[in-house]
Design brief:
Helix content is 13%, strand content 18%. By secondary structure, it is α+β, with helices and mostly antiparallel strands. Strands 1-9-8-7-4-10-3 form a 7-stranded antiparallel sheet, with no helix packed on it. A 6-stranded antiparallel sheet has the order 11-2-12-13-14-15, with no helix packed on it. The protein has a two-stranded antiparallel sheet with strand order 5-6.
Length: 355
C-alpha cells in the first residue's frame, strides 16, 4: 500500500514558452468504438485531427467515469461508495481543527435527507412539508464541531480491471481517493486529498464501516455512485499547443459558431481518470512534482458537473431533463479538482488543484 499526503504547494519550475509536456502514448489498438459501459460519449461532431493532423502526435486517452447514483459495494469501482479497507488499518482523520475555514456546516444525515427530498421532487415544486424539512439558507451546525478529528470521506475507488487509464504502481490494482470534507485555506479553500494504492488481494477480513464526520461542507460529501467507464481521445488545451497551431485553431473556431475546440473537441468534462487536466496556462506550468520537479499527470478529475458548455459530451443514454450535477460535489464555483501524480514516481506527493 502506498499513501501520498498532499504537498505544501506547487513548484515554481516553468518550462520554456511554447513547450508541451509529452502526453502518454496513444495505444496503437485504440479505436473509437462504443465502450461496454451503459453511459457512452457521443462521437465528436468533428474529427479535429483530420482538420489539424499535427494533433495526432499530441493525443492521449482518458477514461470518463460517468458516475450515476447507485449502490456500489466494496468490490466495485465507484464514486463516493464504500472502500475495500483493511480491517487492521486505522481510518485516516484530519486534525486541522480550527484551521479549517467554516461557513455553513451540516451533518451527513442532513445532507442526505436534503438530497433525497430534492430527488423525490424532481420535475415538480416542493411541498410545504418538504420545504419545512430542508435546512434554511443560513442554517449551520455549531462551528466548534470542527475542533475535533474529522474522518476523511471516500471520494473514489477505482479497480485497474475497470479503468483503461488507471495509473498506479505496477503491483497495485486498486486506487482509493479520500478527502477531508471541509475547506482548507492552505489548499486554496479546497478539500485536502489523500490517495492510496493497494493490492486488493491483500485486503482480508470483514468490511470496514468508516467513522462518519460530525459535520461536513455539503458539497464535499459525494453521493454514492456506480461508474460506467468510457474511454475517449483527448487533445491538449490550446494554452499548451505550439503557438502556430493554437493560432490556427483559434482562427478556425472564429469561423464557426460550434463545435469549438475548447468545449467540444479537446478535453472531456466530468469525472475522469487520466487525460489532460483543465486549468489556466499559468497553473499548468506550475504543475510539477515538489520532490523531483518532473511534470505532473492527471490521476483523477473530481468534477462539479458531468457536462457544461460542451453539451456535445452529454451521454445519449441520459434523459432529456437529466441534471449534469449528479454526485453532489461542487468545487469552488463549479470547477474541477485536478488530482495529479508525479510522472516519475508514485511515491512522490500528489497535488490537488482546483481549476
Amino acid at each position: 500500500m502506498t499513501a501520498t499526503p498532499p504537498p505544501d504547494g506547487p513548484s515554481t519550475t516553468v518550462p520554456p514558452a511554447g513547450s508541451l509536456p509529452t502526453p502518454p502514448q496513444l495505444p496503437d489498438s485504440f479505436a473509437a468504438s462504443p465502450p461496454a459501459g451503459s453511459f457512452t460519449t457521443p462521437p465528436r461532431p468533428v474529427d479535429i485531427a483530420t482538420v489539424f493532423p499535427e494533433l495526432r502526435g499530441l493525443a492521449t486517452t482518458a477514461t470518463r467515469l460517468h458516475p450515476r447514483p447507485g449502490a456500489p459495494g466494496v468490490t466495485d469501482s465507484s464514486v463516493g461508495g464504500p472502500l475495500l479497507w483493511p480491517a487492521d488499518e486505522p481510518w485516516p482523520f484530519c486534525h486541522d481543527g480550527d484551521k479549517h475555514y467554516v461557513h455553513r456546516l451540516q451533518t451527513p444525515a442532513t445532507v442526505r435527507r436534503s438530497r433525497a427530498i430534492h430527488a423525490a421532487a424532481r420535475g415538480r415544486d416542493l411541498t410545504a412539508e418538504e420545504r419545512d424539512a430542508l435546512p434554511g439558507w443560513d442554517f449551520s451546525e455549531p462551528h466548534d464541531l470542527v475542533d475535533q478529528p474529522i474522518p476523511l470521506v471516500p471520494v473514489a475507488q477505482l479497480y485497474r480491471r475497470d479503468i483503461p487509464d488507471f495509473a498506479g504502481p505496477d503491483d497495485c490494482d486498486l486506487l482509493q481517493v479520500l478527502w477531508c470534507p471541509l475547506d482548507h485555506p492552505d489548499e486554496h479553500h479546497n478539500p485536502r486529498v489523500r490517495v492510496y494504492w493497494r493490492r486488493s488481494a491483500d485486503v482480508t477480513g470483514p468490511p470496514v464501516v468508516p467513522p462518519e464526520p460530525p459535520v461536513v461542507r455539503d458539497e464535499y460529501l459525494p453521493t454514492p455512485c456506480a461508474v460506467h467507464p468510457d474511454r475517449v481521445v483527448e487533445y491538449p488545451p490550446q494554452e499548451l499547443l505550439p503557438d502556430s497551431l493554437a493560432e490556427r485553431i483559434t482562427a478556425w473556431d472564429d469561423d464557426q459558431a460550434e463545435p469549438l475546440y475548447q468545449y467540444d473537441l479537446s478535453l472531456s468534462p466530468g469525472w475522469k481518470a487520466g487525460g489532460f487536466a483543465c486549468g489556466s496556462v499559468s497553473d499548468i506550468w506550475e504543475w510539477h512534482c515538489t520532490e523531483c520537479g518532473a511534470p505532473m499527470r492527471l490521476l483523477l478529475a473530481a468534477a462539479s458537473a458531468e457536462w457544461g458548455d460542451g453539451r456535445s459530451w452529454r451521454p445519449p443514454q441520459d434523459p432529456a431533463d437529466a441534471d449534469c450535477y449528479v454526485t453532489g460535489v461542487c468545487i469552488g464555483r463549479g470547477w474541477d479538482l485536478n488530482i495529479l501524480h508525479c510522472s516519475t514516481s508514485f511515491d512522490h506527493p500528489i497535488l490537488a488543484v482546483g481549476a
